[in-house]
Amino acid sequence: xxxxxxxHLLEQAEAGEVDQTAFADTVAASLxxxxxxxxxxxxxxxxxxxxxxxxxxxxxxxxxxxxxxxALASDSIRGSLERRFAVKLAFQNCHRVxxxxxEAADSEAYRRFTSERAQILNxxxxxxxx
Length: 130
Known about the structure:
- With 130 residues, the protein is mainly alpha-helical.
- Helix content is 55%, strand content 8%.
């Protein structure tokens, strides 16, 4: 299960629309490593206007890796993180997540990061089963 959903949020969903802030807070509480990683990378990116993107290259623990995979595999969770931190997320493997400015989604740097070439070059035997 990806998220620990509070009863009031479940009631909201059953009745119709869900409050985006409440959903983002649920993501933060349920997937703290993933949320903190994106928050940290977004702060790094936004602190330097010249920076094209910020990324993580440190392999996390198995539990942390699971959080990243759950967060980035879900369109709604990924979108919530992107809106909360005003970034565009890119993901190469079980740990290498990057944040770009939303307007950079069509940039050369984004295309390079998300290319097949970059995926191949970012492979390592220790990530075979991640």
